[in-house]
Write a structure and sequence with these properties.
By secondary structure, this protein is α/β, with parallel strands linked by helices. The protein is built from eight helices and 13 strands.
Length: 262
């Protein structure tokens, strides 16, 4: 049996334990709250509720230490239960604030998941005594929470996060979707076979209204009930998505936006 098959079996065996998940947009290109800051970049704070406990995962950290720090403090985020840091890909607007963020987090029990080797990032993590995993294949982060595995060309590998919510279905979080959002969706569904994909939140890396409509048609075909594009998705592309999926499915995003699936 291949390593990928073993991982898939391990994930499937404990995939029914997530009771709910709350995603807070920590940093985005725009803000939905006047007391928060925005900058070109992305960071999502994910709280996963299990029976009797909750864990947190940080997905990207943006490229601005100032904005990351300000928003984290304004949102009163609790990093004490942070168990994992996932870097989607190696563009500065997704990992540039790493060293200052680690100083703010000050957590001794943290694992960082990287889509490929990166000497500078691994050195920074090592100096902060953060354990590293190179997640070329799908990796289990917590029970019912996994990476998609590294997708795309060797020069720009990218991974997303998939959460299997017991009574809801799958939530896919994307950084920029450089390998295309269709490939991110395909990878997410392979991680938890047979589970419906219910929500997609993150950057889709599309610019035109036409591209947005095409993405919207994909979301409709997949039966997705919540779509919230942000970061590298242009206003025109967002409008295209919204026109296809409709107001009941589309959700505006920005620093301070929260989503809950249960």
């Amino acid at each position: 049996m291949s390593m990928a098959s073993e991982i898939a079996q391990d994930i499937e065996a404990i995939s029914e334990e997530v009771l709910s998940v709350i995603v807070t947009t920590l940093v985005d290109n725009q803000t939905t709250q006047p007391d928060l800051h925005s900058v070109h970049g992305l960071s999502l704070y994910i709280e996963v509720q299990f029976p009797g406990r909750s864990d947190a995962v940080l997905f990207d950290i943006s490229g601005s230490a100032q904005v990351f720090r300000h928003n984290a403090q304004a949102l009163n985020l609790d990093f004490s239960n942070l168990r994992a840091l996932v870097i989607s890909h190696f563009h500065h607007d997704h990992f540039g604030a790493l060293a200052p963020a680690l100083e703010l987090i000050r957590h001794s029990d943290l694992v960082a998941f990287l889509p490929a080797h990166h000497d500078a990032i691994e050195q920074t993590l090592s100096e902060a005594n953060v354990r590293r995993q190179i997640a070329e294949e799908s990796r289990l982060i917590r029970s019912g929470v996994a990476t998609t595995g590294a997708l795309g060309p060797k020069r720009l590998k990218e991974q997303g996060i998939v959460v299997n919510v017991e009574s809801n279905g799958l939530l896919l979080l994307t950084g920029c979707s450089h390998p295309k959002v269709s490939q991110m969706i395909k990878a997410a569904k392979k991680v938890f076979p047979g589970r419906p994909l219910q929500a997609v939140i993150g950057g889709f890396h599309i610019k035109t209204e036409e591209e947005g409509r095409a993405a919207g048609e994909l979301f409709v075909k997949e039966g997705i009930r919540l779509v919230s594009p942000c970061h590298c998705t242009s206003k025109e592309a967002k409008a295209g998505i919204r026109s296809v999926v409709g107001e009941a499915v589309y959700r505006e995003n920005g620093s301070g936006t929260t989503f809950e699936l249960r």
